Amino acid sequence: MRTCYQQQQNRHFGQPVHETHPHLMGMDEVTPGITRAEYQQRRLRLATMVQEAKTQQSIKHSIVLIPSATKVIMTNDIPYTFRQNTDFLYMSGFQEPDSMLVILISDCDFQAVLFVPKHDADRELWDGPRSGDIKALHLTGVSESYNSDELEKFLYNYCKNHKEYAVWYNTNKPIKSQHNAHSIVDEFLKQNNKTKFVQNPLPLIEQMRLIKSTAEIKLMTQTTQMASKAFIEVMRASKPNVNESFLYAKMDYECRIRGAEFLAYPPVVAGGDRANVIHYTRNNCLINDGELVLMDAGCEYHGYTSDITRTWPVSGKFTKAQRLLYECVLEVQEALLGLCTPQYSLADLYKHMFDLLTPRLLLMNVIPSEVSKDEHMLTKLLRELCPHDVGHYLGMDVHDTASISKRIKLQPGMVVTIEPGLYVKSSNTVVPAQFRGIGIRIEDNVLITDGGPVVLTRDCPKHPDHIETLMASS
């Protein structure tokens, strides 16, 4: 029987392909679920958008440069887990580090050229096979493919053969200082006077990424379902005095056995008053009997992420004060989910969140009557009780398409999170004592459609009765 390693040696690809991973890949897919034709269509659309950009009207030629991520070393020769630059992955589907996608655009056509790590027997012995230029060409469907060490010469010849041109390149990306190709591009920009301007392609790419294709929606559905089912098992495994690290490990395990590559981000597993630290990630304390645990976690599945938050009692039963606050957040969250339509923006929903929270908190006496009479004090307390936004765009990155304004109306094909919360620190002496030390957030992932919002994480329990029943059965 051939070993998996022998199969990898024979295939000469640096990523899964249909021939070696038929359980993951369709015949014409570059990455699981996304076909070669869809990647080609994305590159064509980007080229069209570049041509249509106002700054382009007097310029016949453009060159778009999109770098991959690079392998980052943790210590000595031990690397961190590699995660591809999502803009590069979205446009190419190529999953190897230290690569570059170059798109050449003229009046009448465009060409996509991929630069990839060349074959290196010594490195492949340690790190696994590389696709190389020939296999990368076959895999991705680009026009041409070369070894990465040919990029400098290619750019030199492009400059030599064109009188003037525009360069589309993100000079601000954090990976800039890590990737050798960046120094080549920087030198290319410095040493020629034919560049009419340098424009960042990120806003154009993120406009494309904002609206998910049918294939992307399927992947988003799968990643959210995996995380939802994992949450159920984590709730079942909860008990008084459980360590936060155990619940972290349980979430990681349950996501991976369902097919996820890894967790989408360092999860928040916060017991008791620690839930009032919004991005608490130490996850190393015991959760006492009678305390709530807030978990904010999601997984990544073939390049697409989920992002869910649930809050539940480790004992299996909400106290009266916990349930009052929890049901307040749940009512607000469900009302906001109903507003996830093209009539509203995320900025609109943020305002609605406070409009919904305020009367409920007054009715429950969480906000004392004397505070409600002072508009400045009321606003200050509300921002303390819910200091974060109502949600964000979701996709290949957790906080996806960050350059896109939250003031634009929601559109069919978008996926967003809706995540109101209430955070009452134990040190908050304004709020009645029974509510202090409680932090609650409820977060779902929502697909916007013409027919109304589709809650992709609907299978993840959040009604308090459902949570208590689930935990009682464990």
Structure description:
There is one protein chain. The chain is an alpha+beta fold and 474 residues long. The protein is 37% helix and 19% strand. It has 15 helices and 23 strands. It has helices at residues 4-11, 36-52, 86-92, 121-127, 132-140, 151-161, 180-190, 202-210, 214-236, 244-256, 320-338, 346-363, 369-372, 375-385, 464-472, and strands at residues 29-31, 34-35, 62-67, 73-75, 78-79, 100-105, 110-116, 144-147, 165-169, 195-199, 242-243, 262-263, 268-271, 286-287, 292-297, 299-301, 304-305, 308-313, 415-418, 421-424, 438-441, 444-447, 454-455. The chain has a 6-stranded mixed beta sheet, with helices on both faces. Strands 12-16-17 form a 3-stranded antiparallel beta sheet. Strand 4 (73-75) and strand 5 form a beta hairpin. Helix 6 runs parallel beside helix 7, helix 9 packs across helix 10 and helix 11 (320-338) runs antiparallel to helix 12 (346-363). The chain is globular and about 75 Å long. The model is unreliable at 1-10 (pLDDT under 50).
